């Protein structure tokens, strides 16, 4: 018995995504953002995308390219304060932005990945984020229903992967990647190092291989992955 | 940073008690770390997935995978742990976070906090702020006393969309230390060189004054 090899070319993996798709992108700022997969999506030209990502990166990085090229229709996110273009496009009505509390975004994605329909929470009840959301009473206290999130595709960035798609993340590059890797119909992992089977020890696996559809090995990392000098 | 701001940050750092788990928000709060002694027993948490934040590093020493929530390059300390965003906010919402220090656009006299949206102008989003404000055991605000136009940030009622209602316990500004009490804002301490009248004039809501001499920071 042998676990299957899921290594794929970047072009082939990303070509399965159609215009109009919902795509989850891992990352919090630079760490964990799948810049190479985003670049390939940019190159292939898919449009009218709904992007789910913690943030909109910074000018000239990652999601900012998709915004600049007019590929994004809708953004589900927690914070876009470091991307003036995202704020401008939102203010001008060029993109629709749905803000979500950060941990609630994580839980909505986790629920989607766990086959659940929604989560129930009191987070944001006092805010405009509660508008239009159904509320319920839990033990006499109000709470609201936050629907689970799934996507057509998820792009995640791993420090290491084996060919079956067992993934290991590095430091604060983990962030949203493990939840997103469970919450999409098509999960594409880019990895800095791709190892043979057994190369990621079972106890060091952060995302188990069965969740992952394609493993793409990154060559030399582009400068987008590098230290940001502000 | 002005001397008054630096003293405010130093004063806020003294609120941290040994043994606490503390989250420092983006902006002024992250500077509090510079005022904690290397051997002070505290666990600093950052919502992007690290407990045990070490000193900030310059670009040439930075690890590209290791940042805090504001994007600054940080380090680990012996005993640090990495985790995903779901675990990070499980820690916040479940009551494990003893204290958070946050920035503010407005704080109301009932403790309402607004710090994520100025409609039509600057709407960065709340990031992790809603959960931090709503669930940390103690919520401190670090902010200039007035905005860039000189308008008070401490007000009777917030005019901006709320981050969380009734969440703020104490406010540190470049002018004063002020508590949110059931009766409203209570002046506790005043910045060196200022008169009580200066603070009253710069505050957009009534101030309850202490009896006797006011401590200076």
TrEMBL record, chain A:
GO terms for molecular function: transferase activity. It comes from the Bacteria. Keywords: Transferase. InterPro entries: 3-oxoacid_CoA-transf_A, CoA_trans_fam_I, NagB/RpiA_transferase-like. The keyword Transferase applies. PANTHER family: ACETATE COA-TRANSFERASE SUBUNIT ALPHA, KETOACID-COENZYME A TRANSFERASE. This is CoA transferase subunit A. It comes from Thalassovita aquimarina. The lineage of its organism: Bacteria, Pseudomonadati, Pseudomonadota, Alphaproteobacteria, Rhodobacterales.
